[in-house]
C-alpha cells in the first residue's frame, strides 16, 4: 500500500462548499479505511458560538482571536452547532486571519496521527495538509445543495424556505471563496467530484475509487 508520501500514512483531504456532501463522504471514507475523522467546520462553528455566547458582535475580530486560543471543544454539543445561523456566523469568523491561524495546530495534530486521518473543510488540501496523498474537492450546484440543506434542516425542525437557504448558500460561497486567507478552492492536485446527479451511494463509490487510485499511484 502506498500512503502519505512523507510519513507512510494515508491522509485524505475532503474540501468543498456548503452542503456539497463532503461531510457525508468524509465520514464514509473514514469508516471504509478505518481512520479517524475530523469535521473542521465544527471548529469554526464552535468559535462562532463562543463569540456569540460571550456577548460579542460576530464581526469582533479581537474577541474571536482571543477566544480561539482558549475555547473548550468539549463544551459544545454537536447538535447545537449544526443550525443555519451558526453556519453563517462560522463563515464570518472563518475569514479572520487570527481565527484561522489559531486553529491550524489542532487540525495538523489530528492529521498527524499514526494511523492516518480524514479531514473535511475548505482548506484541508491547500493549507492544512498540502502533503495529503488523496484530495477530493466535492461540489454540487447551488440549487442541489440548497435542496439538500433544506431537507436536512427540516428534519431538524428548523423552519426555512428553499429560497432563503439558497441565498445563505450563495452568500457563504462568496464569503468563503472571496476571503484573502485560505479561500475555498480546489488544490491543484485535488480530484473534483461533482455530486449533483449522484446518490450518496454513487458518490461514496466514486470517492473510494479516487482514493484507491491515489493509494496505488
Ligand atoms: N449525493 C447526495 N445525494 C443526496 N443527498 C446527499 C448527498 N450527499 C449528501 N447528501 C445530504 O445532503 C446534506 C448535506 O450533506 P453534508 O455531507 O452534511 O454536506 P457538507 O458536509 O458538504 O455540508 C445531508 O443531509 C446529506 O445526507
Ligand atoms: N476548513 C474550514 C472549514 C470550515 N470553514 C468555515 O466554516 C463554515 C462552516 O463550515 P461547515 O463545513 O461546518 O459548513 P457546511 O459546509 O457543513 O455548511 C464555512 O462556511 C467556512 O466559512 C472554513 O473556513 N474552513
Automatic annotation (TrEMBL):
Keyword annotations from UniProtKB, A to Z: ATP-binding, Cytoplasm, Kinase, Nucleotide-binding, Transferase
Pfam families listed in its UniProt record: Cytidylate_kin (PF02224)
EC class name: transferase
GTP-binding recorded as keyword: no
Record localization: Cytoplasm
Molecular function terms from GO: ATP binding; CMP kinase activity; dCMP kinase activity
GO cellular component: cytoplasm
Domain (Cytidylate kinase) ranges: 12-211
Catalytic reaction list: CMP + ATP = CDP + ADP; dCMP + ATP = dCDP + ADP
Positions annotated to bind ATP: 16-24
One of the GO BP terms on file: pyrimidine nucleotide metabolic process
Family as reported in the entry's similarity comment: Belongs to the cytidylate kinase family. Type 1 subfamily.
HAMAP family, alphabetized: Cytidyl_kinase_type1
Protein name: Cytidylate kinase
